[in-house]
Design brief:
- The chain has five helices and no strands.
- It is flat.
- With about 90 residues, it is mainly alpha-helical.
């Protein structure tokens, strides 16, 4: 039962934090963070658990990152580096 409770709280907590963050950033930034979760898991499993990454794993990791950025930016990957804080413009 504790594992089920942790899973439920993890899902609810993650979504509450993600949607709460939309008040402070653009939807594109939130989508990038959301879609980078598998990549973060790969990096953390390598760093913390010392899991081995093959060349195929690394190529898939890089290809998925490029694909996510390409889709979210409509092919304009330089837009990722543009900083936009809409809540500060009204201050």
């Amino acid at each position: 039962m504790p594992l089920a409770a942790a899973g439920i709280l993890g899902v609810i907590g993650y979504n509450l934090l993600l949607y709460g963050a939309l008040a402070y950033t653009s939807p594109m930034n939130a989508a990038i963070v959301n879609s980078l979760n598998p990549a973060i898991i790969v990096v953390l499993s390598y760093a913390l658990l010392r899991e081995r990454l093959s060349k195929t794993n690394i190529a898939g990791f890089l290809l998925s990152l490029a694909g996510v950025l390409f889709i979210l930016t409509d092919g304009h990957i330089a837009h990722v580096f543009r900083v936009n804080y809409p809540h500060l413009a009204n201050a």
